[in-house]
Amino acid sequence: MSKKEFICIGCPMGCNLVVEMDEKTGEVLSVTGNSCRTGDVYAHKEATNPRRIVTSSVPVDGGDMAMVSVKTKSDVPKKMIFPVMDAIHKVRMHAPVRIGDVVIHDVLGTGIDVVATRNIHAGKS
Fold it and tell me: What is the mean pLDDT of residues 91-109?
């Protein structure tokens, strides 16, 4: 049996979680320290398959601002963060851009889109 410790980021409580795992199977045996169900779900996910939302920005041609902020529509496996960032850095948009516009569809075959998180109006830049 092994133990992993996390600080839950699921809500503002920031509970100190202790996860006991079976070393052979990688299965979560118990979670302690959580004050709500969100902590239990977070601990299971963080111990077995940690994932993160990736945020960045992309250059925009012909817009009132030179860059648009973007993010993955849902969390991607932690090991995919840098490859996803590399894919985002290869993109260039043309104004106008609206919140929710898909910047990259199914980034790297993850099934997850990268979307714009702000509006960029056509204008100078």
Answer: 97
Does the pLDDT of residue 123 top 90, yes or no?
Answer: no
Secondary structure of 3-60 in the HEC alphabet? EEEEECCCCCCCCEEEEEECCCCCCEEEEECCCCHHHHHHHHHHHHCCEECCEEEEEE
Q: What is the pLDDT of residues 5-15, one digit of tens each?
A: 999 998 999 99
Upper half-sphere CA count for residue 106 (Cβ side, 13 Å)? 2
Tally Cβ neighbours within 10 Å of residue 22.
11
Give CA–CA dist 38/10, Å, rounded: 6
Sign of the torsion angle spanned by Cα atoms 38, 41, 47, 49: negative
DSSP structural state of residue 81: H
Whether 39 shows a pLDDT value over 90: the answer reads yes
- Strand-pair category, 93-94 with 55-61: parallel
Query: What confidence category does residue 124 fall into, taking pLDDT thresholds of 50, 70 and 90?
Result: low
